[in-house]
Amino acid sequence: MARVEPVVGEPAAVADLDGERAVLVADVHAGIEVGLRYERGVELDSRTGERRERLCDLIAETDADRLVVLGDLAHRIGAPDGDEREELETLVRAVTDRVPMTLVEGNHDAGVAEAFADDLDVIGPEGGLIGDSPGAVGVCHGHTWPDPGLLDADVVCTGHEHPQVRLEDAVGGSRVERAWLRGELDSAAFTESGDESDRAADAPELVVFPAFNERSGGTWVNVEGQSFLAPYLPVALPAADAYLLDGTRLGDYRRV
């Protein structure tokens, strides 16, 4: 059975697949500072170098053979150009000088696959399997209905949602933390048809990844009335635990 294990303290996980170790991240949003300046007139110091170094350090620390990005490698919606294109080129080069890189296309990745076709292995927006069955891991971004073939995996990994929890203390103070969501997948609710015939006998585990980029915002999953982004959430995850990046298990995310 495939295992997807978070890297303690990081918005990343590792999976051992057919003798190859992959490190997985979601929602890198390279060029976010450029995008915020262009979209909203917000000026922020660039963390380009920090993001690139963190990815390269993760590859080294986990002894990974491959980096898998679960969508939204880029931030601006549209073909990358200018400063964003330059950041992506530097990041992709830094990673692929070390290991191969797989991109699952997200809604922010328009033009990225084409621009970096010679450098990246690309999986389409509907997702796919990495590794051989049995023991494959399903990967998708989460902005569109996934390929029902992902239900053949032991574990399905998705991004897009940027899950966060709002935590309050006894005196009314609060903070927001990035979080993982993990639980058994309702396979019928995971498919666009919603057909009960799609229900798997052995339901995969669904792992919703926190955003790698801490500036990209997210869904407050424990706040009543908060809308989810993925078309299959929250119904495809009827019960799930939330975990902080440091590994703290918070229990049912709805009751945190």
UniProtKB/TrEMBL annotation:
SUPFAM superfamilies: Metallo-dependent phosphatases (SSF56300)
Chain ranges of the Calcineurin-like phosphoesterase domain: 23-143
Superkingdom of origin organism: Archaea
Pfam families: Metallophos (PF00149)
InterPro entries, alphabetized: Calcineurin-like_PHP, Metallo-depent_PP-like, Pesterase_MJ0037-like
Gene Ontology MF annotations: hydrolase activity
PANTHER family, alphabetized: BLR1149 PROTEIN
Name of the protein this chain belongs to: Phosphoesterase
Record organism: Halorubrum tropicale
